[in-house]
Structure formats: structure tokens, C-alpha cells
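note to self — DONT lose this again. spent like an hour looking for the file last time. sequence + predicted structure for the chain T wanted, 156 res
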Amino acid sequence: MRLRVVRFPIAEGSYENIITNLPEDTFPMELISLIYQMRWGIETSFRDLKHTIGTTNFHSKSPEYIEFEILCRMILYNFCTIIIIQVPTQKKTDKWEYQVNLSMAIKICFSFLSDHAAPGSVEGLIGQYILPIRPGRTYTRQLRFQAPASFAYRFV
């Protein structure tokens, strides 16, 4: 397999490196940059699915049950995004635009689905947890090793 590394600027003094197997004559650097920008929404959805909903840790060991857990979490994510679209975000100040706190919205939706809470209270509860959108903020990625969890205690 032949791979090539494409590096393009994303900000002043900041670059993005992409490894691809797409041919250079058909996909120049500008086109790969455009495709990457179009895919960015998908990447952030995967980040939310992995970290906010918790698709990095599973309760099962068999592949069939892990697949079932992934599908359940994808359904929860889709349900939450549909609910979040319905929640109005009111501006508290003129300085920032606001968005719904996704992790709190997921907790509220999960509670609704598991405890059978009243339907009217879900949107109202989610609307209480809004965050300002602050463009241009970046944080360094915090990488840490996480050991796999053993579920042997269930079989006593």
C-alpha cells in the first residue's frame, strides 16, 4: 500500500497532517483540505459518541454484545440530538452565542429513557444547561492510559 502525507496550514503557525492513499494527480492538496473540512462535523460527532456517551468502555466481552452496546449508544446519541434541536437557547449576554451542554443533555435524556420522566420536563431541564460558544479556544489533548475493567465480580 502506498501512502502519502499531506500537510496544509489551518492557522497562523499551525498545520494539519493527513495520511492518505488517494493519488496525487486526482486529489491535490487543496481538494483533500476541502474534503477534510467537509468531514469535520462527522469527526466531532464521533468524538461526542466516544467520549460524551461513553463508547470507549463496554460492559460486554463478546463481539455481538459490544455491537449491540454501540448501536444502543448511537440511538441514544441520535435521540439526544433530536431533542437538543428542539431546545431554544436564550442569550444571557450580548457577548456570546449559546449552545446546549451536550453531556448534561445526554444524562437528562438517558434518565428520561430509563426512569420514564415526564416528557415536558426534558426540554426544560436541558434548557437550563447552556454554555457560551467561545470561538478560537484550543486545549491540549489529555492522553492517559485506561486499563480494561474486569467484570468477574458479576459471576459470584
